UniProtKB/TrEMBL annotation:
<dbReference type="InterPro" id="IPR036890">
    <property type="entry name" value="HATPase_C_sf"/>
</dbReference>
<feature type="domain" description="PAS">
    <location>
        <begin position="23"/>
        <end position="65"/>
    </location>
</feature>
<dbReference type="InterPro" id="IPR000014">
    <property type="entry name" value="PAS"/>
</dbReference>
<dbReference type="Pfam" id="PF08448">
    <property type="entry name" value="PAS_4"/>
</dbReference>
<feature type="domain" description="PAC">
    <location>
        <begin position="236"/>
        <end position="296"/>
    </location>
</feature>
<keyword id="KW-0597">Phosphoprotein</keyword>
<protein>
    <recommendedName>
        <fullName>histidine kinase</fullName>
        <ecNumber>2.7.13.3</ecNumber>
    </recommendedName>
</protein>
<dbReference type="InterPro" id="IPR036097">
    <property type="entry name" value="HisK_dim/P_sf"/>
</dbReference>
<dbReference type="InterPro" id="IPR005467">
    <property type="entry name" value="His_kinase_dom"/>
</dbReference>
<keyword id="KW-0808">Transferase</keyword>
<feature type="domain" description="PAC">
    <location>
        <begin position="102"/>
        <end position="154"/>
    </location>
</feature>
<dbReference type="InterPro" id="IPR013656">
    <property type="entry name" value="PAS_4"/>
</dbReference>
<keyword id="KW-0418">Kinase</keyword>
<dbReference type="InterPro" id="IPR035965">
    <property type="entry name" value="PAS-like_dom_sf"/>
</dbReference>
<feature type="coiled-coil region">
    <location>
        <begin position="291"/>
        <end position="321"/>
    </location>
</feature>
<dbReference type="InterPro" id="IPR003594">
    <property type="entry name" value="HATPase_dom"/>
</dbReference>
<dbReference type="GO" id="GO:0000155">
    <property type="term" value="F:phosphorelay sensor kinase activity"/>
</dbReference>
Length: 608
């Protein structure tokens, strides 16, 4: 071979070498720009090729390793992402063994990198002589698809959960829940609604109201008699209206009529189009009855209040009759009859007030329970609640009952005074030391005699004579002493108060110390003596405000009082007069001058 041939052969060899290099570079460029990862091994099973994507998948560079080291080095796992992949499961190993691998699911979880789910496909390749030259595997990243599938499964699970939750709610609620399509056929119903129609849920779905046994009048109404049918409200809801009917009577399966609060609203699909209507009906019969009972209770309470007012008016009329009586004996008989006649209705009213309060409290509590269970009532109920001022009604009703109770207790006290006045309560007659009774009364009133921030102590001067034991009704005489002494204390306090007010008006100051120094201390003087050998006389005098002649003329009249309303019954001195004059055959007189004080004189026989 001459040099020319040798150069030509070398040139051809170099050209072939250059062409092969270009092909390799072209192949590398193609492999590195593929979106799939490509790995290959040679005829000895050693890795020989990792394209750019494969290196990114594994997070490591290609390395010439035997198959038994591929799993650990390249972080290969089965589809569960947890189980390391056995060598015989590795797609490249299987392809090298002659198996054609098709979309085998696997996971690559590099320690430094992103975990990916892949589909691997591959097979062996051969040289021109038919000898196995190696194997190649392509790996397609399906991580996004797997995430989408997981999201879909989760959505389906949530949808199934929501469906089961909705069904549970519909099976559990006592409200009637239903939905109808545009053909007015049921597409949804709660169990309570189906049971009310004597239907199963399955038998109800797909039917309209007529097929379920509702009458034509119930479905379509009768405008001539003002009946609005189901269909009218259904059509309105399907047209986009929101229907509220807070008072909706309906006949249930047992034939009884119940009152419902019904609402119907349109249902929209994802495109905003109405495809059905949803209805709900809540049984408010018990609440309606409770409210009616509460209204009736209010009416009954008002009626009782009216009766009480009439009783008080009767009492005032009785007072006028008593005041006009000319003789105390006839007055006693009259008052006895009045006390008896008033006592019965007052006791009846008084005895019913506690049950009425309990009933009203129960009704109010039941109403609060309904409000708790239905915290968002419809607009009509809310408007009516505001119109009647339910909050005020609930607060004022117990106060009304309490005021009635106070009124009846007041009447009972007056009746008791009348009973005492008319000798309905008898006491044992016995000989007593009147001084002991007076002293006991002063002990009881001791706290009222003590000094206060507004006045000094009230002094009591005792000028007791030598009295024999007196045959009398001791308890009743003690009541006389109590009434007269109480009035004396009040007269002294009233005088001191008026002096303080006058001092303040004149600019002299009303300080307690100044008032105490300038005001004579209140004094009550009690004198006793034996007169005419068979009469005892008790005089009780005070240096209080005194009274006019007009007041003295009415002083012993029943119900007469100069005290503000609620601070006196006007029976104290009247009863005292009855005790002294009627019970003991004595006399009770009064002498007073305005601003100079008052003196009461009691005179009774030693023996009855």
């Amino acid at each position: 071979m001459d040099i020319t041939d040798r150069k030509r052969i070398e040139a051809e060899r170099q050209h072939a070498k250059d062409s092969l290099q270009k092909e390799r570079e072209c192949l590398r460029a193609i492999l590195d720009n593929l979106t799939d990862g490509i790995v290959a091994c040679d005829e000895n099973g050693h890795l020989m090729l990792f394209n750019h994507v494969a290196r990114e998948f594994h997070g490591v560079a290609e390395a010439t390793l035997p198959p038994n080291q591929w799993t650990e080095h390249f972080d290969l796992y089965l589809a569960d992402g947890v189980t390391p992949m056995p060598t015989h499961e590795i797609p490249l190993f299987r392809a090298f063994q002659g198996e054609q691998v098709h979309e085998f699911e696997m996971v690559i979880a590099p320690k430094q990198g992103k975990t990916r789910a892949l589909l691997a496909s591959g097979r062996a390749f051969f040289d021109a002589a038919g000898n196995k030259a190696g194997a190649v595997v392509a790996m397609h990243d399906i991580s996004d698809r797997k995430q989408a599938e997981a999201a879909l499964r989760k959505a389906m699970q949530e949808s199934d959960y929501q469906s089961r939750l909705l069904r549970t709610i519909l099976d559990s609620t006592q409200d009637w829940i239903f939905a109808k399509d545009k053909e007015f056929r049921y597409i949804l119903a709660s169990r309570s609604y189906a049971e009310a129609l004597n239907q199963s849920i399955d038998s109800l779905l797909g039917k309209d109201d007529l097929e379920l046994g509702f009458s034509i009048t119930q479905v379509f109404g009768n405008p001539d008699v003002g009946i609005r049918g189901f269909r009218n409200d259904d059509q309105a809801a399907l047209a986009g209206e929101v229907i509220r009917n807070p008072y909706d009577p309906a006949t249930v399966s047992d034939g009884s009529t119940r009152i419902f609060d019904t609402s119907k609203v349109p249902l929209y699909d994802s495109d905003g189009n109405i495809f059905a209507m949803l209805g709900s009906s809540r049984d408010i019969t018990d609440r309606h009855n409770t409210e009616a009972a509460l209204r009736n209770s209010e009416a009954a309470l008002k009626e009782k209040a009216s009766e009480l007012e009439e009783t008080l008016q009767t009492l005032r009329l009785t007072q006028a009759q008593v005041i006009q009586a000319e003789k105390m004996s006839s007055l006693g008989q009259l008052v006895a009859g009045i006390a008896h006649e008033i006592n019965n209705p007052v006791n009846f009213i008084y005895g019913n007030l506690s049950p009425i309060r309990e009933y009203a409290a129960d009704l109010l509590h039941l109403l609060e329970l309904y409000q708790t269970q239905s915290p968002q009532p419809d607009s009509e109920i809310q408007a009516f609640t505001e119109a009647i001022d339910l909050r005020f009604l609930k607060q004022d009703l117990p106060k009304l009952i309490d005021s009635m109770k106070m009124g009846t207790e007041r009447i009972r006290e007056i009746v008791l005074s009348l009973r005492n006045f008319s000798r309905l309560d008898e006491a044992e007659v016995k000989e007593v030391d009147l001084h002991t009774g007076i002293d006991s009364t002063l002990v009881i009133l001791g706290n009222r005699l003590k000094p206060t921030p507004d006045r000094p102590a009230i002094q009591v001067v005792k000028q007791y004579g030598n009295l024999p034991l007196v045959e009398c009704y001791a308890g009743q005489l003690n009541q006389v002493f109590m009434n007269i002494l109480s009035n004396a204390i009040e007269a002294i306090e009233e005088k001191i108060q008026k002096q303080a007010e006058a001092t303040a008006v004149n600019g002299k100051g009303a300080h307690c110390a100044v008032l105490t120094a300038q005001t004579a201390p209140g004094t009550i003087t009690i004198r006793t003596q034996l007169v005419e050998s068979n009469q005892v006389q008790i005089c009780i005098a005070d240096n209080g405000l005194g009274m006019s002649a007009e007041v003295q003329q009415r002083l012993f009249d029943p119900f007469f009082t100069t005290k503000p309303v609620g601070q006196g019954t006007g029976m104290g001195l009247s009863i005292s007069y009855q005790i002294v004059a009627e019970r003991h055959g004595g006399s009770l007189t009064c002498h007073s001058e305005p601003g100079q004080g008052t003196e009461f004189t009691i005179q009774i026989p030693v023996e009855l």
